[in-house]
């Protein structure tokens, strides 16, 4: 049986242009177009960088929590308590992936919000 981390990794690396590498603080990191989409700390926690405005919306709606170490930034944390949280984690990774690849066809770098 695959771990939660394996399940999320298998899905995210299947998206066009996504690279996976070890994260500097442990776990696994996903990148696209030179930008980190987010990273996993084992099977229990996902951390993802967003613009502050998007972080505020995600936290206010209950889709994510303030980052466990850097709450004043755009980073969010998403606790993974079990299989039922995989879909929510993948939704956040997909949101950030789409934000970072929105202008891929135009050759422009995406800056800013969703």
What gyration radius follows from the Cα positions, in whole Å? 13 Å
- The helix fraction, in percent, is 25-40%
Order of helices and strands: HEEEEHEEH
User: What global shape is seen?
Assistant: globular
Which blocks of ≥5 consecutive residues have pLDDT under 50? Answer: 106-114
How would you sum up the major sheet?
6 strands, antiparallel
What oligomerization state is this entry in?
Answer: single chain
What is the CATH topology descriptor?
Aspartate Aminotransferase, domain 1
| Mean of pLDDT | 89
Overview features:
disordered C terminus, Aspartate Aminotransferase, domain 1, 114 residues, globular, alpha+beta, six-stranded antiparallel β-sheet, 25% strand, 6 strands
Structural account:
This protein is an alpha+beta fold and 114 residues long. The chain has a single domain, classed as Aspartate Aminotransferase, domain 1, CATH 3.90.1150. Helix content is 30%, strand content 25%. The protein is built from 3 helices and 6 strands. It has a 6-stranded antiparallel sheet. α1 packs parallel to α3. The radius of gyration is 13 Å and the shape is globular.
Topology (elements, then pairings):
Layout: H1 4-12, E1 19-22, E2 28-32, E3 35-41, E4 45-49, H2 52-60, E5 65-66, E6 75-79, H3 86-101
Antiparallel strand pairs: 1-2, 2-3, 3-4, 4-6, 5-6
Helix pairs in contact: 1-3
The gist of it:
The protein is of the alpha+beta class.
């Amino acid at each position: 049986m695959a771990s939660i981390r394996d399940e999320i990794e298998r899905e995210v690396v299947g998206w066009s242009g996504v690279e996976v590498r070890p994260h500097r603080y442990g776990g696994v990191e996903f990148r696209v177009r030179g930008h980190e989409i987010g990273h996993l700390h084992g099977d229990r926690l996902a951390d993802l960088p967003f613009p502050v405005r998007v972080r505020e919306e995600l936290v206010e709606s209950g889709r994510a929590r303030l980052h466990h170490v850097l709450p004043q930034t755009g980073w969010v944390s998403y606790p993974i308590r079990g299989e039922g949280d995989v879909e929510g984690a993948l939704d956040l990774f997909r949101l950030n992936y789409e934000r970072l690849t929105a202008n891929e066809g135009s050759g422009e770098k995406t800056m800013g919000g969703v």
